Amino acid sequence: MVKVHGERRRGLTKGLWWLVLVFLVFTGGCWDRRELEKLAVVVGIGINLAPEGEGYEVSYQIVRAAQIQSPGGSGSGDEELRPFWILRSRGPTVFEAIRNATLQSSRRLFLSHNQVLVINEAVAREGLMPALDFFIRDHEPRLTQWLLLTAEDPVQIFDASAGLERVSSQAISDLLQHYQLTSKIRPVRLSDYIALTMEKTAANTLPRIRTIEHAGKKEYILDGTGIIKGDKLVGFLDPKETRGLLWVLGEVQGGVLTVDVPGEKGKATLEIFDSASKVTVQAEAEQIRVKIEVQMRSGLGTQTVYTDLSTPDQFKKLEQWQAEVIKAEIEAALAKARAYKADIFGFGRLLFGRDNRSWQRLAPDWERYFVEAPVEIKVKTAVEELGLSTRPALEL
Amino acid sequence: MAQELISPRQLTFLVISFTIGSWIVLPSGIEAWQNLWLLILFALGQALGFVYLSLFLFRRYPGKTLFAVHEFVYGPVLGKLISLLFLWFFLQTGAGALAVFVTLLKTTVFTDTPDLALLLPWVIIIVYGCRRGLEVIARSNEPLVLATVGLILVSVFLVLNAFKAENLLPLFNQSLATVFWNTLGIAVFPFGQNVLFLMLLPQVNRPQKVRGAVLRGMVVAGGLLSLLQFLAVGVLGRTGELFVFPTIEFYRMIIIGQVLTRLELIPLLNFLTMGFIKIMLCLYTLAVGTAQILELRAYRPLVLPLGILILVFARQIYPSISLHLHYIEEVQPLVSLFFCFFLPMLTLGVSFLRGGAQQEMAS
Amino acid sequence: MIVLIVVVFIGLFLYEAPGLVAKEFWRELAVFTLLMLLGLFLSILLASGVELPYVESIWVELFMGLRKMLASGS
To answer: ipTM for the complex?
Structure first.
């Protein structure tokens, strides 16, 4: 009797269970179901100040899924055939601007796959966080987006030819990830930017991008670095100075370096294999003392002189010359950083981590300590490879 | 009431998931973010002390639940009143965890879904699980814990390329007061909440192994949380302080190659299962406890209405996550300390004062 | 909405109660009914937009009040 009752009961529970499943499938899942055809997948976002009045003008590069597979749609061809769509909208805040875009776009903008945030320098001069907060707070965009500065309208960047790729944002993201081929730019993710912004004494850097006219076509090029101090753009580094910064940070993992061969009209270019750096910051009563040690390995890549550079003696000299170049690059970067009183090297962060007490003491007046700090730079280099040939075919 | 038995190993697993529970998505002690992984270890030590002492109650009165001990120590009226306080605590803990998970789902995945549509499935599943009984909860918990442990261990390899040891420095830049307060906050939540198990210990089939099982579970859970926090600080750096749900943010940062992104849904699902177990245990204890106070023969009929109460309370826990964060930081350590340490210690003290009693029990 | 809630509660009641009656669990039935009524009451209050206090707000106010009292006392 009891058993029968129990079985009936079990059947009932089972039935209820199925009901729950059905309920789950038909309710919970539906509200936020998003189908690809109903979304506008944004891969690049540009932020500019609104041309008149307050607020921001935000531009978007949205991929056209249909065109991305079909051939024929070259970068700047017929508007209909391009594999992406550029849209812009305005609003008093970035968030409202993004929502206002749906007044023009038939599909809801989907930001999870956004690759790059191109920020106009006027925005950066007024402060970046007000523009970036949305991208941190909202659940769709990711912290792994790349940040870039541009002096131009960001739309120009999205509009430029993407070269071998179909969509410029994707191409820019690839360019940034290959930074080590030149080590002349420093790619920065949104997460990196936030992390350094949280360090009171540190200054941020962001890579710059601009367009160039080439055979009647617009293309873009990564060129130099902006220095962001206290969330505001204050100055720039050129590519050489940028590499100076990267040497100190130990982020040079490739690229080439050209040295003048003294006494001759010619140069030698060395390929950088890798580098490592060790920075020590020592706090004293009224100053900090910085020691930068850089180690680097390279190989002879090409030479334009008619002297044999492949001998052990010449290698010694090459090592010395390239060490001088590296030192010069670091000093150039250091000079700029001092001029802007911006601790882009993160000396303060190091002290914060290693000697927190001293940091607490020095932080309020960090600018002064940073500018006045004696910096000792030691560069140790090795030239290890020759390539496939030894001496040049013709020696003079 | 037919006694459902679980093994000490299942108890350990339950302690692990109950401890990991909702803390993993919304940690306490975030003020000390950078040293949180260390604080977890301190707090674990502290909480092991709390729980070790509380377990003396079970030693002294083997085979009795906390509520039965209350009645024995304080007499039926006062004992029931104190038990009632604990019922409130279990209700608030369960409803709080439910509210946190619903908020998490609402802000990350189901942004346009109404609250009720998120709450209802949770409650239905929890009620269903509880009606099945502790044995079923414990058995289904085992693979879930293994999956979570596996996930946390795998994360080590996932984040290798993003991990920066520099982010861990400086150790100890907080004031002693901050460290103390936040350690306390972690010791009571999540570890101290294990006081709930005092209600379930009589249902373990080998009572002599209970103490080891509970403490082992806490150590494993503490180790896992500390490891995860260690990784999160290494990857997120100080940025982690900014986020409401830092663990999810940590998984959002993982990119492997160019392809493997948007991984956070896997850990999210995983942590949801831990939450399910935690809330289920709260509801189960609520039902069993209510049945004991009112001297009922069965707890099962109470599961459904108490589940509804949890649902209602989950909506009324906090008006916004902002208040919840404030509560966790400022108030919760004290509230939880009262329930997780002060009350059990009081009971233990009174029982010692009344002495002699345990002879009666032992016979 | 309120009608829906009442219907759901009656449904749940009818699902659980017959088993208890069959087993003659009268005490259990009474507690069950009471708790259901409490749930129903709170649900209806919520559904009809009555503003109930929030659990954590109460704790926060309690402790802030205590802190203030201690601060003024010392």
So the answer is: 0.89
